[in-house]
Amino acid sequence: MAEKIQIGVLGSGTMGNGIAQIAATQGHDVIIVDNNEEALVNASKKLQKIFTRLVEKKRMTTEEMQASISRTTYTTDFESLSNSKLIIEAIVEDLNVKQQVFEKLENIVSEDCILATNTSSLSVTAVASGCKKDSRVLGIHFFNPAPLMPLVEIVPGLATDEQTLQNAKQIIDSWGKTVVIAKDTPGFIVNRIARPFYGESIRILEEGVADVATIDWALKEYGFRMGPFELMDLIGNDVNYKVTCSVFAAFFYDQRYKPSFTQQRLVEARRYGRKSGHGYYSYAENAQKPEAKQDKELAEQIMMRVVCMIINEAVDAVFLQIASAADIDLAMTKGVNYPKGPIAWAQEMGLEKVLDYLQNLYEEYGEDRYRPSPLLRRMVKNNQNFD
Ligand SMILES: NC(=O)c1ccc[n+]([C@@H]2O[C@H](COP(=O)([O-])OP(=O)(O)OC[C@H]3O[C@@H](n4cnc5c(N)ncnc54)[C@H](O)[C@@H]3O)[C@@H](O)[C@H]2O)c1
């Protein structure tokens, strides 16, 4: 059981409430603050419902449920965070609002309180920049649903000190999470390396190489739990498109991350996916799911193109010291359930084969999108491996 410090959670939405559930289950007193009274009432009811279901499923006892609920406080009063030793912010994804809230927090909490942001797409350094003591601010990035997803990316900002990083890591480790450390760069690890899973699949579709159902089938044949189009329909094409656009802009418009017209048009047509009843697939009651063309050769071709692009991203992330090769593989297997870590996959395929494949794409298309990572070139040239 983790040391019972008081944990503050800012924002009682999807992520904040999930994080509060974890912390309360781990025996911490948890103060959940939101500026919206109704959001707090809903979040508190939702947590009760989740705990009740866990009791029904015998995943926790009634006593544990009652103790966890009694440890949580839902309030609009920011001052009640004064005794918290770690505050995890999960409010609206808006830099100005986050900066203001962090400045406000600093006047309330004690000197040794760690301030963390759960941002997915903003710079941790920018969020911290308004703080007097920016060395105590870092990113603690959970995945949705937070209580179920094992991965947490910890992201030190430019000013974060080593002690803050180690203390935060120790707390999240003690919650049984798989922690990886990522550099403060767009998309951190998972949202950066996963881009080609969507982007390259859309490209394959746009070129008419295969249809949506066939691409989904092909990648599932190679162990992905869901196909890219099924997954985008589940996440919401509006959400996925927004992430793609923000990563593209954050990379100073590097062509590798360029969004697609296909996705833009779907969003314009409000084909958000499951939640709107239509995305790449129709979810109408009588809708017939299109049949995949189950051609093994085509499946291999699709897999090679998508996986080599993912590997290229992963190798480039190692090259640019975004994270270690081991953390990248952990992140992609635990955060998004990839069948293999991209670095391990590269080793298995052979780095030379991956480089050859990318080099051919690069020559054929003449697009920067396909440029092989310098590290991949260097390793092949020097006959090196990752292990
Ligand atoms: N939803 C995801 O899949 C996901 C995954 C990882 C990270 N994130 C990040 O987590 C954060 C929260 O996302 P979410 O999906 O839980 O959002 P959400 O909209 O479900 O919840 C946000 C909550 O913050 C509250 N809020 C807004 N401004 C506030 C303020 N100034 N002070 C106090 N409370 C305020 C809102 O009332 C709302 O209850 C964002 O930074 C997001 O990028 C989201």
From TrEMBL:
Keywords: Oxidoreductase. Residues 6-185 form the 3-hydroxyacyl-CoA dehydrogenase NAD binding domain. GO terms for molecular function: 3-hydroxybutyryl-CoA dehydrogenase activity; NAD+ binding. InterPro entries: 3-OHacyl-CoA_DH_CS (IPR006180), 3-OHacyl-CoA_DH_NAD-bd (IPR006176), 3HC_DH_C (IPR006108), 6-PGluconate_DH-like_C_sf (IPR008927), 6PGD_dom2 (IPR013328), NAD(P)-bd_dom_sf (IPR036291). Residues 187-283, 303-384 form the 3-hydroxyacyl-CoA dehydrogenase C-terminal domain. GO terms for biological process: fatty acid beta-oxidation. It comes from the Bacteria. Pfam families: 3HCDH (PF00725), 3HCDH_N (PF02737). PROSITE patterns: 3HCDH. Belongs to the 3-hydroxyacyl-CoA dehydrogenase family. This is 3-hydroxyacyl-CoA dehydrogenase. It comes from Uabimicrobium amorphum.
